Amino acid sequence: MRRIGFIGTGMMGGHMACNLVKAGFEVLVYDTRPEATKDCVTLGAQPAGKIPELAGCEAVFVMVHSGPQVEEVLLGEQGLLKGMQRGQKLTAVVMSTISPHLIKKLSQATEPKGLTLIDAPVSGGPILAQMGALSFMIGGDKAIMETVMSCLEAMGNKHFYIGPLGMGLAMKLVNNIVGITNAYVFTEAVKIAHAGNLDLRRVVEVMNASSGRNWCSENWEMYVQFVGIVLKDIPFKDTTIKDIKTAIDWAEEMDLSSPILKAALAIAESGVDVPEDLHRKILETKV
Question: What is d(CA 275, CA 271) in angstroms, rounded to the nearest whole number?
């Protein structure tokens, strides 16, 4: 598989598409903001003027923001299906974090027309996306998944096949529940530690040898960058809010309550409170 389509070259997708180009794939890229494809095109990707042009690729990867955007990409008046020929077969790999129920609903509309969906949401954030070190959680037909595995390997170094369509997204939402809330709890703990005159380097060292050990404490250098993104990057904040809401909606569809997630949503919407002096201290602390 060599000719690949990629839709959505934002803060995550841009790095991912660039890594496909670097791996030697012929990549056709599209974004609603043409300027977002600039880095990929500079590396050698070809820009598409509209989504149906990508229907001639061997597979198309979708990394847009939300469920409605995924639906528009696949089924819209200027969507992938509009570019497909009668009898054509095409695989679309949806990497956006959307509801497991939605991906199944979309598949019911696309499968009869030759467009097979795979869900392969990612974990790791923009930093690991740039490094090509993302984790993929994959749902769908395993044989179809194998046909795009070389592409997934160019974008990430961990690949987990979870099960039928929608199961990759289910796993991603469960991971997000822990990952997002942990980041907020850890940041609050760091704030309290700083106010209590504890040395942050010592705090992280002790946590990593104790029951408070977590992804943020074990990956301090990436956490330092994460805090900067949280404080400054509005698209990152919007994505976090969308992901939490998606997890809450999914839980409610299963008649489950999620009070901790709702608290995390309130924090995300109001913004993370990291005083300037603490942010400087975080930046200065080497672990």
Answer: 12
Length of the chain: 287
Q: Which of 21, 30, 77, 22 is nearest to 54 (CA)?
A: 30
Q: Which residues contact 92 (CB under 8 A, 6 or more apart)?
A: 59, 60, 61, 62, 74, 80, 110, 115, 116, 117, 118
36 confidence band (pLDDT: 50, 70, 90): very high
Q: Please, where in the chain does CATH 3.40.50.720 lie?
A: 3-164
Pick the catalytic residue: 89, 104, 172, 262? 172
User: What is d(CA 260, CA 106) in angstroms, rounded to the nearest whole number?
Assistant: 30
**Is residue 241 within 8 Å of residue 247, measured between CB atoms?**
no
pLDDT in tens, 143-156: 999 999 999 999 99
Rounded Cα distance between 74 and 81, Å, is 6
* Amino acid, single-letter form, for residue 5: G
Superfamily for domain range 171-284:
N-(1-d-carboxylethyl)-l-norvaline Dehydrogenase; domain 2 (1.10.1040.10)
Fold classification of 3-164 (topology level) = Rossmann fold (3.40.50)
91-147 pLDDT tens trace: 999 999 999 999 999 999 999 999 999 999 999 888 899 999 999 999 999 999 999
Residue 236 pLDDT exceeds 70 = yes
DSSP per residue, 133-153: -EEEEEES-HHHHHHTHHHHH
**Is-catalytic flag, 172?**
yes
